[in-house]
Design brief:
Shape: globular
Largest sheet: 2 strands, antiparallel
Order of helices and strands: HHHEHHHHEHHHHHHH
Number of strands: 2
Oligomer: single chain
Strand content: under 5%
Length: about 350
Amino acid sequence: MFETLGFESLTPVLAAAILGLLVGCTFGALAQRSGLCLRRGLAGPREERIPALGAWAMAMATAIAGTRLAVITGLISFTDHRFLTPDLAIVALVVGGALFGAGMVMAGGCVSRLTVLAGSGNLRSLFALIIIAATAHATMKGALAPVRQVLGSLTIQGGEFVAITSLPGGEIWPFAVTAVAVIFALRSGALKSHLLMAAVIGLLIPLSWVGTGFLLQDDFDPLPVESLGFTGPTAGALFWFVAATSIPVSFGTGLVAGVLAGSMAASTASGEFRLQTLDVPTRTIRRLAGAVMMGIGGVLAGGCSVGAGLSGISTASLAAVLAFVAMSVTAKTLGKSLADS
Protein backbone atom coordinates (compact mmCIF):
# COMPACT_ATOMS: atom_id res chain seq x y z
CA MET A 1 0.00 0.00 0.00
CA PHE A 2 2.81 2.43 0.88
CA GLU A 3 4.13 2.63 -2.66
CA THR A 4 0.78 4.02 -3.86
CA LEU A 5 0.74 6.94 -1.42
CA GLY A 6 3.25 9.03 -3.34
CA PHE A 7 5.69 9.73 -0.51
CA GLU A 8 8.76 10.06 -2.70
CA SER A 9 11.04 11.44 0.03
CA LEU A 10 9.94 9.10 2.84
CA THR A 11 10.87 5.52 3.56
CA PRO A 12 8.29 3.29 5.27
CA VAL A 13 10.42 3.31 8.44
CA LEU A 14 10.52 7.12 8.60
CA ALA A 15 6.82 7.33 7.76
CA ALA A 16 6.08 4.91 10.63
CA ALA A 17 8.10 7.08 13.01
CA ILE A 18 6.12 10.14 11.93
CA LEU A 19 2.87 8.23 12.43
CA GLY A 20 4.09 7.25 15.91
CA LEU A 21 4.91 10.88 16.65
CA LEU A 22 1.42 12.06 15.65
CA VAL A 23 -0.31 9.26 17.54
CA GLY A 24 1.91 9.91 20.56
CA CYS A 25 1.14 13.64 20.59
CA THR A 26 -2.57 12.88 20.59
CA PHE A 27 -2.25 10.24 23.29
CA GLY A 28 -0.04 12.47 25.45
CA ALA A 29 -2.37 15.46 25.29
CA LEU A 30 -5.55 13.48 25.92
CA ALA A 31 -4.04 11.31 28.67
CA GLN A 32 -2.68 14.40 30.41
CA ARG A 33 -6.06 16.15 30.37
CA SER A 34 -8.13 13.07 31.26
CA GLY A 35 -5.72 11.51 33.75
CA LEU A 36 -6.24 8.10 32.12
CA CYS A 37 -4.43 5.59 34.33
CA LEU A 38 -5.07 1.92 35.08
CA ARG A 39 -3.16 2.14 38.36
CA ARG A 40 -5.48 4.87 39.61
CA GLY A 41 -8.46 2.63 38.90
CA LEU A 42 -6.94 -0.34 40.73
CA ALA A 43 -4.92 1.18 43.55
CA GLY A 44 -5.70 4.90 43.65
CA PRO A 45 -7.78 6.79 46.21
CA ARG A 46 -11.00 4.88 46.88
CA GLU A 47 -13.31 7.59 45.53
CA GLU A 48 -11.40 7.76 42.22
CA ARG A 49 -11.20 4.05 41.44
CA ILE A 50 -14.53 3.37 39.73
CA PRO A 51 -14.51 6.52 37.56
CA ALA A 52 -10.89 5.81 36.57
CA LEU A 53 -11.77 2.21 35.69
CA GLY A 54 -14.75 3.52 33.73
CA ALA A 55 -12.50 5.70 31.59
CA TRP A 56 -10.12 2.78 31.05
CA ALA A 57 -13.06 0.53 30.09
CA MET A 58 -14.17 3.08 27.49
CA ALA A 59 -10.69 3.14 25.97
CA MET A 60 -10.69 -0.65 25.94
CA ALA A 61 -14.10 -0.74 24.25
CA THR A 62 -13.15 1.51 21.34
CA ALA A 63 -9.77 -0.19 20.95
CA ILE A 64 -11.40 -3.62 20.66
CA ALA A 65 -14.29 -2.53 18.45
CA GLY A 66 -12.10 -0.55 16.05
CA THR A 67 -9.50 -3.29 15.77
CA ARG A 68 -12.03 -6.08 15.22
CA LEU A 69 -13.76 -4.05 12.50
CA ALA A 70 -10.39 -3.59 10.79
CA VAL A 71 -9.84 -7.35 10.95
CA ILE A 72 -13.34 -8.19 9.69
CA THR A 73 -13.00 -5.80 6.74
CA GLY A 74 -9.63 -7.33 5.83
CA LEU A 75 -7.51 -4.23 6.44
CA ILE A 76 -5.21 -6.05 8.87
CA SER A 77 -4.46 -9.58 10.00
CA PHE A 78 -2.79 -10.90 13.14
CA THR A 79 -2.23 -14.42 11.85
CA ASP A 80 1.55 -14.33 12.34
CA HIS A 81 1.67 -11.73 15.11
CA ARG A 82 3.61 -12.47 18.30
CA PHE A 83 0.45 -12.05 20.39
CA LEU A 84 -1.04 -15.09 18.66
CA THR A 85 1.86 -17.53 18.70
CA PRO A 86 0.68 -21.14 19.29
CA ASP A 87 3.28 -21.64 22.04
CA LEU A 88 1.78 -19.94 25.09
CA ALA A 89 4.60 -18.84 27.43
CA ILE A 90 2.35 -19.20 30.44
CA VAL A 91 5.02 -18.72 33.13
CA ALA A 92 6.55 -15.62 31.54
CA LEU A 93 3.11 -14.10 30.98
CA VAL A 94 1.91 -14.60 34.55
CA VAL A 95 5.21 -13.77 36.26
CA GLY A 96 5.77 -10.78 33.98
CA GLY A 97 2.24 -9.52 34.44
CA ALA A 98 2.50 -9.86 38.21
CA LEU A 99 5.84 -8.03 38.30
CA PHE A 100 4.49 -5.24 36.12
CA GLY A 101 1.32 -4.86 38.20
CA ALA A 102 3.27 -4.61 41.44
CA GLY A 103 5.81 -2.31 39.85
CA MET A 104 3.27 0.21 38.59
CA VAL A 105 1.80 0.50 42.10
CA MET A 106 5.23 1.06 43.64
CA ALA A 107 6.40 3.48 40.95
CA GLY A 108 3.23 5.57 40.99
CA GLY A 109 1.96 4.70 37.52
CA CYS A 110 2.38 2.41 34.53
CA VAL A 111 4.91 3.23 31.81
CA SER A 112 2.46 5.27 29.74
CA ARG A 113 1.36 7.29 32.76
CA LEU A 114 4.96 7.95 33.80
CA THR A 115 5.69 9.15 30.26
CA VAL A 116 2.77 11.57 30.43
CA LEU A 117 3.89 12.81 33.86
CA ALA A 118 7.48 13.22 32.66
CA GLY A 119 6.24 15.42 29.84
CA SER A 120 4.40 17.49 32.43
CA GLY A 121 7.63 18.23 34.29
CA ASN A 122 7.73 15.38 36.81
CA LEU A 123 11.41 14.51 37.15
CA ARG A 124 10.57 11.57 39.43
CA SER A 125 8.72 9.97 36.55
CA LEU A 126 11.53 10.77 34.12
CA PHE A 127 13.98 9.04 36.48
CA ALA A 128 11.70 5.99 36.64
CA LEU A 129 11.37 5.92 32.83
CA ILE A 130 15.15 5.80 32.38
CA ILE A 131 15.37 2.89 34.82
CA ILE A 132 12.50 1.10 33.05
CA ALA A 133 14.16 1.58 29.67
CA ALA A 134 17.54 0.29 30.85
CA THR A 135 16.02 -2.70 32.65
CA ALA A 136 13.77 -3.59 29.72
CA HIS A 137 16.73 -3.45 27.34
CA ALA A 138 18.77 -5.65 29.69
CA THR A 139 15.90 -8.15 29.74
CA MET A 140 15.55 -8.15 25.96
CA LYS A 141 19.20 -8.13 24.91
CA GLY A 142 21.48 -7.80 27.93
CA ALA A 143 22.46 -9.46 31.19
CA LEU A 144 18.89 -10.41 32.09
CA ALA A 145 18.12 -12.00 28.72
CA PRO A 146 18.89 -15.55 29.99
CA VAL A 147 16.13 -15.15 32.58
CA ARG A 148 13.71 -14.15 29.85
CA GLN A 149 14.77 -17.07 27.70
CA VAL A 150 14.34 -19.62 30.49
CA LEU A 151 10.92 -18.36 31.52
CA GLY A 152 9.86 -17.96 27.90
CA SER A 153 10.77 -21.57 27.16
CA LEU A 154 8.20 -22.84 29.68
CA THR A 155 5.25 -23.03 27.31
CA ILE A 156 2.04 -24.89 26.75
CA GLN A 157 0.65 -25.64 23.33
CA GLY A 158 -2.30 -23.36 22.68
CA GLY A 159 -3.15 -25.01 19.38
CA GLU A 160 -6.18 -23.36 17.82
CA PHE A 161 -7.16 -21.62 21.05
CA VAL A 162 -4.65 -18.79 21.10
CA ALA A 163 -7.35 -16.18 20.50
CA ILE A 164 -10.71 -15.49 22.09
CA THR A 165 -12.20 -15.55 18.60
CA SER A 166 -11.24 -19.24 18.36
CA LEU A 167 -14.08 -20.03 20.76
CA PRO A 168 -17.52 -20.95 19.38
CA GLY A 169 -19.13 -17.68 18.32
CA GLY A 170 -15.93 -16.16 16.95
CA GLU A 171 -16.11 -12.37 16.74
CA ILE A 172 -19.15 -12.26 19.03
CA TRP A 173 -16.88 -12.45 22.08
CA PRO A 174 -14.82 -9.28 21.49
CA PHE A 175 -17.96 -7.30 20.72
CA ALA A 176 -19.66 -8.71 23.83
CA VAL A 177 -16.69 -7.47 25.89
CA THR A 178 -17.02 -4.10 24.15
CA ALA A 179 -20.70 -3.83 25.08
CA VAL A 180 -20.05 -4.69 28.73
CA ALA A 181 -17.17 -2.22 28.89
CA VAL A 182 -19.29 0.61 27.46
CA ILE A 183 -22.13 -0.08 29.90
CA PHE A 184 -19.72 -0.12 32.83
CA ALA A 185 -18.04 3.08 31.62
CA LEU A 186 -21.33 4.97 31.30
CA ARG A 187 -22.37 3.90 34.80
CA SER A 188 -19.00 4.53 36.44
CA GLY A 189 -19.55 8.16 37.28
CA ALA A 190 -16.60 9.27 35.15
CA LEU A 191 -16.87 12.74 33.62
CA LYS A 192 -18.31 12.71 30.12
CA SER A 193 -15.31 14.67 28.87
CA HIS A 194 -12.98 12.03 30.30
CA LEU A 195 -14.99 9.23 28.69
CA LEU A 196 -14.85 11.02 25.35
CA MET A 197 -11.10 11.49 25.57
CA ALA A 198 -10.67 7.87 26.64
CA ALA A 199 -12.73 6.76 23.64
CA VAL A 200 -10.45 8.70 21.30
CA ILE A 201 -7.38 7.23 23.00
CA GLY A 202 -8.81 3.76 22.40
CA LEU A 203 -9.30 4.53 18.71
CA LEU A 204 -5.59 5.29 18.42
CA ILE A 205 -5.04 1.53 18.80
CA PRO A 206 -6.79 0.44 15.55
CA LEU A 207 -5.48 3.57 13.81
CA SER A 208 -1.93 2.43 14.58
CA TRP A 209 -2.63 -1.19 13.62
CA VAL A 210 -4.03 -0.09 10.25
CA GLY A 211 -1.26 2.45 9.75
CA THR A 212 1.63 0.04 10.32
CA GLY A 213 -0.15 -3.09 9.09
CA PHE A 214 -1.76 -1.74 5.92
CA LEU A 215 -1.13 1.86 4.88
CA LEU A 216 2.64 1.86 5.38
CA GLN A 217 3.35 -1.70 4.31
CA ASP A 218 5.78 -2.04 1.43
CA ASP A 219 6.55 -5.38 -0.22
CA PHE A 220 10.20 -4.38 -0.59
CA ASP A 221 10.62 -2.87 2.90
CA PRO A 222 8.12 -4.55 5.27
CA LEU A 223 7.39 -3.04 8.66
CA PRO A 224 6.49 -4.79 11.89
CA VAL A 225 2.76 -4.54 12.54
CA GLU A 226 2.47 -2.64 15.82
CA SER A 227 0.32 -0.36 17.88
CA LEU A 228 0.59 1.49 21.18
CA GLY A 229 2.91 0.03 23.81
CA PHE A 230 5.55 1.58 26.03
CA THR A 231 7.96 -0.91 27.57
CA GLY A 232 9.96 -1.83 24.47
CA PRO A 233 9.49 1.56 22.77
CA THR A 234 10.76 3.39 25.87
CA ALA A 235 13.92 1.29 25.78
CA GLY A 236 14.22 1.83 22.04
CA ALA A 237 13.74 5.58 22.36
CA LEU A 238 16.40 5.90 25.07
CA PHE A 239 19.01 3.99 23.10
CA TRP A 240 18.10 5.79 19.87
CA PHE A 241 18.67 9.06 21.73
CA VAL A 242 22.19 8.07 22.77
CA ALA A 243 23.13 6.20 19.56
CA ALA A 244 20.97 7.59 16.76
CA THR A 245 23.62 7.03 14.11
CA SER A 246 23.52 3.26 14.63
CA ILE A 247 19.93 2.70 15.75
CA PRO A 248 17.12 3.56 13.29
CA VAL A 249 13.99 5.39 14.31
CA SER A 250 10.78 3.41 14.57
CA PHE A 251 7.08 3.77 15.28
CA GLY A 252 7.86 3.27 18.98
CA THR A 253 10.54 5.98 18.98
CA GLY A 254 8.10 8.46 17.50
CA LEU A 255 5.38 7.34 19.90
CA VAL A 256 7.40 8.01 23.05
CA ALA A 257 8.65 11.37 21.74
CA GLY A 258 5.11 12.31 20.77
CA VAL A 259 3.65 11.45 24.19
CA LEU A 260 6.27 13.60 25.90
CA ALA A 261 5.58 16.49 23.50
CA GLY A 262 1.79 16.15 23.65
CA SER A 263 1.77 15.99 27.44
CA MET A 264 4.09 18.97 27.70
CA ALA A 265 1.91 21.03 25.35
CA ALA A 266 -1.32 20.12 27.15
CA SER A 267 0.07 20.73 30.64
CA THR A 268 1.61 24.04 29.58
CA ALA A 269 -1.62 25.22 27.95
CA SER A 270 -3.60 24.37 31.09
CA GLY A 271 -1.05 25.90 33.46
CA GLU A 272 -0.28 22.53 35.04
CA PHE A 273 3.31 22.14 33.85
CA ARG A 274 5.74 22.36 36.73
CA LEU A 275 9.04 20.78 37.62
CA GLN A 276 8.85 18.24 40.42
CA THR A 277 12.06 16.84 41.82
CA LEU A 278 12.84 13.57 43.58
CA ASP A 279 11.14 13.12 46.95
CA VAL A 280 12.19 11.47 50.23
CA PRO A 281 14.72 8.59 49.99
CA THR A 282 12.27 5.85 51.00
CA ARG A 283 9.83 6.78 48.23
CA THR A 284 12.67 7.13 45.73
CA ILE A 285 13.85 3.62 46.53
CA ARG A 286 10.32 2.29 46.15
CA ARG A 287 9.95 4.03 42.79
CA LEU A 288 13.30 2.60 41.70
CA ALA A 289 12.25 -0.93 42.67
CA GLY A 290 8.91 -0.47 40.91
CA ALA A 291 10.62 0.76 37.74
CA VAL A 292 12.92 -2.27 37.68
CA MET A 293 9.94 -4.58 38.14
CA MET A 294 8.06 -2.90 35.30
CA GLY A 295 11.06 -3.06 32.97
CA ILE A 296 11.45 -6.80 33.53
CA GLY A 297 7.75 -7.57 33.81
CA GLY A 298 6.74 -5.62 30.72
CA VAL A 299 9.17 -7.61 28.56
CA LEU A 300 8.18 -10.99 30.04
CA ALA A 301 4.48 -10.22 29.70
CA GLY A 302 4.83 -9.06 26.11
CA GLY A 303 3.81 -5.50 26.89
CA CYS A 304 2.69 -2.97 29.48
CA SER A 305 -0.84 -2.13 30.58
CA VAL A 306 -1.30 -0.40 27.21
CA GLY A 307 0.80 -2.74 25.07
CA ALA A 308 -0.59 -6.00 26.45
CA GLY A 309 -3.79 -4.41 27.71
CA LEU A 310 -5.37 -2.06 25.19
CA SER A 311 -3.35 -3.14 22.14
CA GLY A 312 -2.90 -6.81 23.01
CA ILE A 313 -6.48 -7.52 24.01
CA SER A 314 -7.73 -5.76 20.88
CA THR A 315 -6.09 -8.58 18.88
CA ALA A 316 -8.23 -11.09 20.85
CA SER A 317 -5.01 -12.69 22.12
CA LEU A 318 -5.36 -15.13 25.01
CA ALA A 319 -1.75 -14.39 25.98
CA ALA A 320 -2.53 -10.68 26.31
CA VAL A 321 -5.60 -11.43 28.41
CA LEU A 322 -3.56 -13.60 30.80
CA ALA A 323 -0.85 -10.95 31.16
CA PHE A 324 -3.38 -8.18 31.72
CA VAL A 325 -5.29 -10.19 34.34
CA ALA A 326 -2.03 -10.92 36.18
CA MET A 327 -1.16 -7.20 36.13
CA SER A 328 -4.57 -6.15 37.38
CA VAL A 329 -4.88 -8.73 40.16
CA THR A 330 -1.40 -7.99 41.51
CA ALA A 331 -1.87 -4.22 41.33
CA LYS A 332 -5.24 -4.47 43.06
CA THR A 333 -3.89 -6.76 45.79
CA LEU A 334 -0.76 -4.71 46.45
CA GLY A 335 -2.73 -1.47 46.37
CA LYS A 336 -5.12 -2.79 49.01
CA SER A 337 -2.21 -4.05 51.11
CA LEU A 338 -0.48 -0.68 51.03
CA ALA A 339 -3.74 1.13 51.83
CA ASP A 340 -4.36 -1.11 54.85
CA SER A 341 -0.82 -0.83 56.18
